[in-house]
Amino acid sequence: MKFQLKRLTRKQRQRSQPIIHLKFRNGNFQIMGLGVWHSYWRDPYHLLLTIPWTGFVLLICTFYVAINTLFSLAYLLGGDCIANARPGSFFDVFFFSVQTLASIGYGAMYPKTTYANLIVTIEAIVGVMGIAVMTGLAFARFSRPTARVIFSRVAVIVPHNGMPTLMFRTANQRRNLILEAQMRVYLMRDEVTAEGEFMRRIYDLKLLRQQTPGFALSWTVMHMIDDSSPLYGITSESLNQTNSLLMISLTGIDETVAQVVHARHSYSANDILWNSRFVDILHHASDEHRYIDYNHFHDVLPLE
């Protein structure tokens, strides 16, 4: 049995799946093109959900003008088929098309031939379908639940109760509750197996408190680095050599919209500070009340 290698044609290469580029930039693991809205041209629905609002409105306006221009040309091909429209006037038939597409109703102009009524019927169907699609897309964009959660710019490894502990902060920027908030922390790093196979391993990091019934203000997330931790025995140099990355995932139910919201963040090896602690943001007032000062949310101090 013989095997032959066949060179792919240009059309076949275009139909094949694209190559995904991975790189490390400033210590961060990045998938090139991930989350970029203009990379979804083959998925129009997803593109219309991810495109910025200015681009979405501009796209709707462009499509609206284009479809009315197309039907205007169709009316011009029918000759004098629109009553009270100036013969050969593009603007008259264009505004007539606008009235038809939006189901506004006619004033002085109306179709007077069978050809014109046929085009009006087609345009009315297109108008109803277009309004339904645009309304659904706009509602889908408005109804997407989002979380306004911030994470500290850095994470620290500092002794806590006699054990080295990984810590970082997170805070809810909205004045509401995220119910049943759950925090998951993953460690990603390069490893070589005993067989010499390179792979990117993912480890779950056990937290002192992984869930809270109501996330309203701030949350200091802690992971104790004991002998069962994947971070046991690591150093700053080993984190950089293995391209280590901490992936943070926060999920919960927004009490305002009663929908699940999520937030994510990542810390590279360069974002993890050793022998430093966060500045305390919880203070006591003179009237025995407590308050939180978010001005020092990202600040750290070296240990003495």
Describe the structure.
The structure is a single chain. By secondary structure, this protein is α+β, with helices and mostly antiparallel strands. The chain folds into two domains: 44-142, Orthogonal Bundle (Helix Hairpins), CATH 1.10.287.70; 149-302, G protein-activated inward rectifier potassium channel 1 (Immunoglobulin-like, Sandwich), CATH 2.60.40.1400. It has helices at 10-15, 44-50, 53-77, 90-101, 114-142, 236-241; strands at residues 22-25, 28-31, 82-83, 110-111, 149-151, 155-160, 163-172, 178-192, 198-204, 211-215, 218-224, 245-254, 259-268, 272-274, 276-278, 282-284, 290-292, 300-302. The strands form six sheets. Strands 5, 6, 7, 11 and 14 form a five-stranded mixed beta sheet that branches. Strands 8, 9, 10, 12 and 13 form a five-stranded antiparallel beta sheet that branches. The chain has a two-stranded antiparallel ribbon with strand order 1-2. A hairpin with a 2-residue loop joins strand 6 (155-160) and strand 7 (163-172). Helix 3 crosses helix 4 and helix 3 (53-77) packs antiparallel against helix 5. The longest helix is centred in the middle third of the chain and has 29 residues, at 114-142. It is elongated. Mean pLDDT is 83; it is low at 1-6 and 12-16.
